[in-house]
From TrEMBL:
GO terms of biological process kind: folic acid-containing compound biosynthetic process; tetrahydrofolate interconversion
Species assigned in the record: Metarhizobium album
Pfam families documented for this protein: 5-FTHF_cyc-lig (PF01812)
Gene Ontology MF annotations: 5-formyltetrahydrofolate cyclo-ligase activity; ATP binding; metal ion binding
Designated name of the protein: 5-formyltetrahydrofolate cyclo-ligase
Lineage: Bacteria, Pseudomonadati, Pseudomonadota, Alphaproteobacteria, Hyphomicrobiales
Enzyme class: ligase
Keyword Ligase: yes
Cofactor: Mg(2+)
Reaction(s) the record says it catalyses: (6S)-5-formyl-5,6,7,8-tetrahydrofolate + ATP = (6R)-5,10-methenyltetrahydrofolate + ADP + phosphate
Keyword Ligase found: yes
Recorded family membership: Belongs to the 5-formyltetrahydrofolate cyclo-ligase family.
Coiled coil feature spans: none
Length: 234
């Protein structure tokens, strides 16, 4: 039996291995400056990745299908757009099926061209060749480099203000800080990845919206344009 199958039961009953996330960081002796925030984020990432990885296969697929439905609702007109998605790892929602169905759009994969520098984006379609890139992330072999209109960024945690806790390289923040024009940024993850606050730091750039299996959350201050029928009136 595959390890993932053994966990194909509803979660939420067992106690988490660590209650650190329920403790006020100040109580942990962590000031939410650059140093304290790094330690707190490391612990939160570990806890949230563990929870995500332990989702059973069918539960992950069920939730991912709901995420795809919400993406369709949020982005009804993607023809002609350049949309960055991602090659999934560590239990991230696998949106490759959604990518394949995004007719008329050009799908891109983010590429770490240089460590600690903004990402670049290359076009990719299901079936096209990939190479092992920097940090072992698959990257399109022959894709055309393009700027995205829409960036769909996988997340490890998020909060009600649409701040995203990512994998810890700062790659999406660095990228959104320099892309001109600024693309629409959408975080994707599962509902249990919501936390009270990610304790945003000056470099953190919030998402315009966050899509999970249970819904779409819009950042109040965002001016991004989505399908008009889904954006709540200000
Ligand atoms: N599927 C997916 N693709 C993605 C991201 C993601 O979160 N998910 N990224 C989201 O940003 C970017 C890649 N971010 C990454 C950040 C750190 C490491 C990593 O392995 N860090 C090592 C140290 C690496 C080293 O310097 O040698 C580590 O943390 O131990 C990998 C990818 C772009 N592509
Ligand atoms: N615009 C930027 N310029 C320079 N450094 C940055 C920038 N944005 C983030 N960083 C650095 O990257 C590091 C990781 O940032 P952070 O913890 O926000 O990553 P993350 O958003 O979780 O990761 P990722 O976006 O790769 O998934 C931090 O030390 C931060 O200083």
């Amino acid at each position: 039996m595959a390890a993932e199958d053994r966990n194909d039961t509803p979660d939420g009953y067992a106690s988490p291995a660590c209650f650190m996330h329920e403790v006020d960081p100040a109580y942990m002796g962590l000031e939410m400056d650059g140093v304290g925030s790094k330690a707190w984020r490391k612990a939160e990432r570990r806890r949230l990745i563990d929870r995500r990885v332990l989702l059973g296969v069918s539960e992950r697929e069920r939730r991912t299908a709901q995420i795809c439905g919400h993406l369709d609702q949020l982005l009804p007109n993607i023809a002609g757009r350049n949309i960055s998605l991602y090659w999934p790892f560590l239990g991230e929602p696998d949106l490759r099926g959604w990518m394949a169905s995004a007719t008329g759009a050009t799908c891109l994969l983010p590429v770490v061209a240089e460590k600690q520098k903004p990402l670049i984006f290359k076009s990719w379609r299901m079936g096209e060749a990939l190479v092992r890139g920097i940090l072992n992330i698959p990257a399109p072999l022959n894709g055309e480099e393009r700027l995205p209109d829409i960036v769909i960024a996988p997340l490890i945690g998020f909060d009600a203000q649409c701040y995203r806790l990512g994998f810890g390289g700062g790659y999406f923040d660095r990228t959104l800080a320099v892309l001109e024009p600024r693309p629409v940024a959408i975080g994707v993850g599962f509902d249990f990845q919501e936390i009270e606050t990610i304790h945003p730091q000056p470099h953190d750039i919030p998402m315009d919206a966050i899509v999970t299996d249970t819904g779409i959350r819009f950042r109040k201050e965002s001016t991004a344009v989505f399908g008009s029928e889904v954006r709540p009136a200000p």
